[in-house]
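Appendix C reproduces, verbatim, an entry submitted by the partner laboratory led by Prof. M.T., so that reviewers can inspect both the input and the predicted structure.
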Amino acid sequence: MMNAVIARQPGGAEVLTVVERAVPQPATGEVLIRVASAGVNRPDIMQRNGMPIPPGSSDVFGLEVAGNVVALGAGVSGFAIGDAVMALLNGGGYADYCVARAELCLPVPDNLPLAHVAGIPEAAFTV
């Protein structure tokens, strides 16, 4: 089990709450990341304010994270257990663990702290 952040109802930051959820398991082409830091994006605020989330998205906030790979789904290459990564997600980043498509993960340079790179994936993949 893990901790994750959702909104109890639409509103300000006071509606955010920590809930317990099962640790997600990586499907084919995905990696499981132990989250160290998460970015805060406008869509997170819109979701918190009550905007419906897209179909297939998580009710757990967080579109980008930085952390370490702890498991690999079938068919994943280029990453290994323990690798530091930053990733763009379909929600689920405000949690202890999240899954990300391997092609939406980037390696973190050794000289950059995870807390400094958690906000990069959204901008990097947009560019």
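Residues 66 and 113 are 9 Å apart (CA to CA). Additional entries are available on request from the coordinating office.
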